[in-house]
Amino acid sequence: MATVETRGITKQFGETRAVDGVDLATREGELLVLLGPSGCGKTTLLRMIAGLEHPTAGEILIGGRVVNELPPRTRKIAMVFQSYALYPHMTVYDNIAFPLKAQGFPREEIPKKVEWAATLFGIQRFLRRKPRELSGGERQRVALARAVVREPAVFLFDEPLSNLDAKLRTLARDELKQFQRRLATTTIYVTHDQVEAMGLGDRIAVMDHGKVRQIGTPREVYDEPADTFVAAFLGSPPMNLVERDDCILGFRPEHFLPKGIHEGQVATFPFHVHRVEYLGADRLIYGELTGKWGEALVIARLPYTVGTPIQPGETYDFDVLEKDLKLFDKATGRRTEPRPL
Amino acid sequence: MDARQETLALEEPRPGRLAALVDREEWLGPLMIGPAVLYVVLVVGVAFFLAIYYSFSNITVGARDLQFVGLRNFTSVVATTKFQTSLWNTFVFAFVSQALVIVLANALALALFKEFKGKWLVRLLILLPWVAPISIGTIGFLWILDSTYSPVNWTLEALGLIGPEGWFMWLGVPHLAMGSVIAIHVWRLLPLATVILLAGLSSIPRDIHDAVAIDGAGFWRHHLQITIPLIRPIILVAFLFGIVFAFTDMIVIFVLTRGGPYDTTQVLTTLAFFTGIQGGDLAEGAAIALFLFPLLLAAAIVFLRIARRAEVT
Where does chain A hold its CATH 3.40.50.300 domain(s)? Predict the structure, then answer.
């Protein structure tokens, strides 16, 4: 067991700074998700922790020890790649046994270890097959078994589910979470998929342009976004952001409901509806705020329990609970203290 | 709309005959491949079938007629020690040089796969033997290996490794001569094999190498258990290509030793040339040249099969 910590870690590729002074610390046994759009530096950060990329500046600590100069094999880590990176010319058995052989594991114990890892992921009957004879989901299990077999102190996952189709992905996500819980091994998980991040992560680090914008539990990053980037990146559709004077007002589409549904202190907005999308479980209402709010485009998300008829072209009064209104500084994008509108 | 369609139909240019031909795929394909087929048939095919025809006849240079003699050329030539030596030399020359080429090309390709300063210059230098005319390069080596003026001997003496009496006759002593022609042949084929293997190396996804690094394999395990098996089809292609080339090409030996001393570097191609062209016995020369054809044909078939399998996966 070990924790991972980075101190001011930076990676420069020519002119661009892929990772820009990231300070990050995992907790013992937690699953930390690095979430961000493509090109935000999350994979580079992971590769530096793995030792596949050398940082330009800063320190990486695994289990309290600076590992900057250590090669990947001595870092006690295992990594699962997006492509799984199985060795195509080897059988599943040899794939799983490879890290054990490479690290000089006692020869007679290898079959037992491989058996154990294969049982963990229910792939015993594929041991004699080659990777190309397996389905995507089966390959992914082999990759996991190969990572687990050496009992690493830290798991690193680089978008391990993104090559699976949508149905399988949900299932695999659940399995991954259960398995991580059972082993209680510190895990860093890179993804660009917010649903995956929210569903899997004990905590989420939201990254953009090489910097960590916010670290927190899924609830924290969703309900209390630190800045407009986090607010707009999470949620589908994302948080509505309305500029006003020196600040930006933010509220989630699902908090923006027709007058009379919320109970408590509310702020009311005149909402001119352009278009209604019926999605079954809920309705998405596209439109703009009018009056003093001046033509800001916003989206409302009405659950199916709200049956209020809404017609395109009409203007309605919509409410947001005051506690659900977030304020951001217009210049920096950072969250500011709530104040009367 | 209707009017527009009408004018379009009227104004459409009447296709020329050639254009009509080129527009039809069943004609375009043959048209494009035609010149290559013509070239192969005229330059290779005619000569090849003429050689087969000659090898079963008693033709000599200057003869006005020829008779069919069956397998007599083959049986008589196979019995000579000269032929047997040449056959053995051919195999030694081809397999030793190719083994060296593959090992060295592997090392070079690995080195060139890494990023380093001045890589383009090293690549250029390595490719140079391939783009220089072979005969000119080989004539250069004729001087380098000259018994009196050899800069190699001079360097060895200057370094104190050999005395003035110990100068090597690079091309004049049996084993040394074979070693020299093999070395020059390796020098010549190395660039091509290196480029082929480089292409193979770059076809391996980076993730695989990363996984190997994380799994903790050292250089040799990485190279022998992962990299080599993954590029094995490509190595085989380079190897077979080189083998066929070594079996069928005579330029290095022809320029450097002419098969000497005492036939110790004589191979079937040079023997065929000396017997058929310089010795005037066209029939026997043709028989010698064709002797290895079945073996090379088999090699070529294997070669094509591997190429196809590499395409599929």
Answer: 4-223
Q: What pLDDT shows up at residue B68? A: 79
What is the CB-side half-sphere exposure of residue B147 using CA atoms within 13 A?
9
Q: Hey, are the CB atoms on A71 and B213 less than 8 Å from each other?
A: yes
Which class would CATH give A236-336? mainly beta
- Collapsing DSSP to helix, strand or coil, A159 comes out as coil
- The first and second tokens of residue A127, run together, are 């041991």
Q: What is the pLDDT of residue B312?
A: 46
- Does the beta-carbon distance from A85 to B208 stay under 8 Å? yes
Q: Mutate which of A46, A52, A110, A139 to test chain B, going by most B C-beta atoms within 10 A? A: A52
Alpha carbon B313 to its chain centroid, in Å, reads 26
Which residues of chain B make contact with A83, given a CB cutoff of 8 A?
A: 205, 207
Domains in chain B, please, with CATH? 17-50 (no CATH), 56-312 (1.10.3720.10)
Burial class of residue A327, CB neighbours in 10 A (0-12, 13-18, 19+): middle
Residues A232 and A293: their CA atoms lie apart, in Å, by 19
- Mean pLDDT across B137-164: 80
Tell me: the pLDDT tens digits for A16-50?
Answer: 889 998 999 999 889 999 999 988 999 999 999 99
- Angstrom distance (rounded) from CA B202 to CA B209: 11
What number does CATH give the domain A4-223?
3.40.50.300
The whole-number average pLDDT for the span B213-241 is: 87
Which element (helix H / strand E) includes B302?
Answer: helix B293-312
Per-residue pLDDT, A341: 64
Distance from the A87 Cα atom to the nearest Cα atom in chain B, whole angstroms: 7
CA-to-CA distance for A238 and A230, rounded, in angstroms?
9
For A63: left if phi > 0, alpha if psi spans -120 to 50, otherwise beta; the answer is left
**Distance from B216 to chain A by nearest Cα, in Å?**
4
The model's pTM is: 0.77
In terms of Cα–Cα distance, which of B278, B269, B297 is closest to B89? B269
Contact A124, A115 (CB under 8 A): yes
For the record, the structure tokens of B202 come out as 């770059």
E strands in chain A: 4-13, 16-25, 31-35, 57-62, 65-66, 77-80, 154-158, 186-191, 203-208, 211-216, 240-244, 247-251, 257-258, 266-278, 282-289, 296-303, 315-321, 326-329, 335-336
- Show the low-confidence residues of chain A (pLDDT under 70): 1, 340-341
